[in-house]
Amino acid sequence: MTEPASQATLDALLARCREVRTPCGDGHLMWRVWGADTPDRPAVVLLHGGFGAWNHWVRTIPSLEPHYRVIAPDLPGCGDSADPPQPYDAASLASLLSGGLDVLVADDAAFDLVSFSFGGVLSGLIARAQARRIRSLTLVGTPILGLTTTGPANQLVRVPPELSPEEAAPLYRGNLQKLMVRDPAAVDDLAMTLHAANMTKTRLRSRSIARTFVTAGSLHDLPCRLSCIFGDGDVTLHPDLASIRAHVAEIHPGAGFHVIPDAGHWVQYEASQTFNALLLDMLAEASEKVSAAD
After folding, report:
1. Does 184 sit behind a cis peptide bond, omega within 30 degrees of 0 on the bond before it?
2. Over the range 110-131, which residues count as b (16 or more CB within 10 Å of their CB) and which as e?
3. Which residues have a Cβ under 8 Å from the Cβ of 163 and sit 6 or more positions away?
4. How many CA atoms lie within 13 A of 179 on its CB side?
5. 116: left (phi > 0), else alpha (psi -120 to 50), else beta?
6. Is it true that the peptide bond before 239 is cis, omega within 30 degrees of 0?
7. Judging by DSSP bridges, how do beta strands 69-73 and 43-47 pair with one another?
8. Strand 18-24 and strand 27-34: pairing?
9. Can you point out the beta strands (E) in the chain?
10. pTM over 0.90
11. One pLDDT digit (tens) per residue for the chain, 294 residues
């Protein structure tokens, strides 16, 4: 896929969505919605990772779009959303997003929340605020026990803003290969196109929050079903994948825990076909269990 073709892929997705704005500090949060708001289309909310935007889900949205109303915000201080009020923390960011969901999702409508990386750090808090209607929470590549302080995820190279796109490209590529994927070849033109755009817009400083234990604490006694999806080569996890599995089993017995082989942190991009099939099955199962309970 060439760079023009990659941009065309993103543009085609944007052409099919509608934009909704909700309050955020002195501006607004940008939300993008795919699919009609009808009773036969339950809502699925997608939260992206740090230094990202809605387009972290570029390979997920088309698989969900025929079946769901897909809602994807740019997190506060990311993409086309305004900066959050200072000082901010996980609780204040989650409150902004929960307030937006009050606008996007009707009071009597259930929704599923699927959150990647830093989006997942905020999601236990959001689930608690949305206890009356959240149906399931799926964490994707989320550092539940705090973002690791060692290893490739901490060896990223700063990209000076004065560099030309041609000069910045190899630095962006190297950072993506270190942090986001297991196979360096997965960093294709589409990944580079959306990452370069995201990096020019991101103002949120998420790593200090991701290094805390806020996620682990907020996942206790969730008001909804919990599932986790990780790539087996995710370099962001601390202390390791086995410890995270054990912690999830302890605090949420019966939670789904899925590890996709030959994939890194950005598992929904690198292993999109496997991920999409798994996610669709998990969302259908969550719906069936809620219907049976009712």
Report:
1. no
2. bbbbbbbbbbbbbbbbbbbbbe
3. 171
4. 22
5. beta
6. yes
7. parallel
8. antiparallel
9. 18-24, 27-34, 43-47, 69-73, 111-116, 134-140, 225-231, 256-260
10. yes
11. 567 899 999 999 999 999 999 999 999 999 999 998 888 899 999 999 999 999 999 999 999 999 999 999 999 999 999 999 999 999 999 999 999 999 999 888 999 999 999 999 999 999 999 999 999 999 999 999 998 877 887 788 999 989 999 999 999 999 999 999 999 999 999 999 999 999 999 999 999 999 999 999 999 999 999 999 999 999 998 778 999 999 999 999 999 999 999 999 999 999 999 999 999 999 998 877 665 565
Q: For the domain 3-293, what is the CATH code? A: 3.40.50.1820
d(CA 45, CA 114): 6
CA 208, CA 155: separation in Å to the nearest integer?
Answer: 16
Closest CA to 98 of 68, 138, 133, 146: 133
Amino acid at 257: F
36: tokens are: 């009609």
